[in-house]
Predict the structure.
Amino acid sequence: MTVTVRFAPSPTGHIHIGNIRTALYNWLFAKKAGGTFILRFDDTDVERSKREFADAIEKDLAWLGVRPDRQERQSDRLSAYDAVVERLKASGHLYACYETADELERRRSRARAIGRPPVYDRSGMKLTDEQKAELEADGRKPHWRFLLPNFESDPHGIQRTDVTWDDLCRGPQSIDLGSMSDPVLIRESGSYLYTLTSIVDDIDMGVSHIIRGEDHVANTAVQLSIFRALEATAPVFGHHNLLTTIDGEGLSKRKGALSIGSLREDGLEPMAVASLAVLTGTSQSVEAVPSMDALADRFDLASVSKSAAKFDPEELNGLNARLVHEMPFEAVQPRLARLGIMADETFWETVRENCAKVADARLYWQIVRGSIEGQVEQDDLEFLTAARNLLPEGQIDEQTWKAWTSALKSETGRKGRGLFMPLRKALTGLEHGPDMQAMLPLIGRQNILDRLP
């Protein structure tokens, strides 16, 4: 089977790390199988869909290294949906309903009050042509529902009807269509809901596998029924667990929770984001994977847990730091230059272990370039004066620190923290940082003397 998958976001806001989890699962699945990844914008909601959001989604995916093999927009395919709608109406699979949202809610409330499930009773199917004409004369417009195949001959004789499939993530699944309302596929405005447009696209584009969040599990039974009504072979489904905050709250695109754009602007590495998004909530350990190829090797839908995947954003910072600590100078040099750091490999090798983000190197560049003031405590003035006098002559190199502190120890009797900390604070302005043995040659003699009293 030729693998074709799709990621179908609505361009109505900025996507977050939970959305990217779905995109990456699809892209990695296609990558491992040598298949095709389609980026398909669900942009039929004209009022809320914005080109700026679509552009941002493309940028976010590209930042992570995800480049679609094909791109589609549902707004370009309205004629295809129109044709399928006429086909479903002609076959009796779509029927018109005229209830308002308030009327439907009152019916659901009454059903709950008497202990019945709030399932739509198919009243729309009982309307005569005359009654429909009267409703439309009063200004009502119909919405259209898909008739679920949960009956034998009488649509009002609803019975248990199990739809089953073998889920790539969750194993054997079964949903009872008899417990569900007929889904609305066309709004009163005449616009199409995602359920319809997605299925038409999946058929026309040859989508072989649908990998998405577990919040769509119940929808799958409905969609399988629509595929059958259209006499089409349904894709293989896989429903992965959802990412939540550490407190168990769901992520929201509208609230901008952990948006990919904000993570990028914060200076995080794309592979830190990808590693967390893919590996959290699986049986595999969450590690900082250095490349998409390596992540593809580890990717396995069977390892996805059935429970929610909680994660702590602080874990993202830890993954990021581990990636930065392993970065070779050749990989980071252009980025350092964009930050105004015209450094050599020695500088990067010295400071990278103390950088949680590449941008953190700016602090150490300021230190070695001389644009900081050291911290000098009153109690350390005499000690630091002695340090100035005992600074070894000649070139400052990696042997200087050991010779200098040995001489100071003999002269002042100080040792340990009392010996090293005043020097570090005076020369770097910090209480912690890179190894002073390596930093001292970078700081240079003149900066050392300028910072000592």
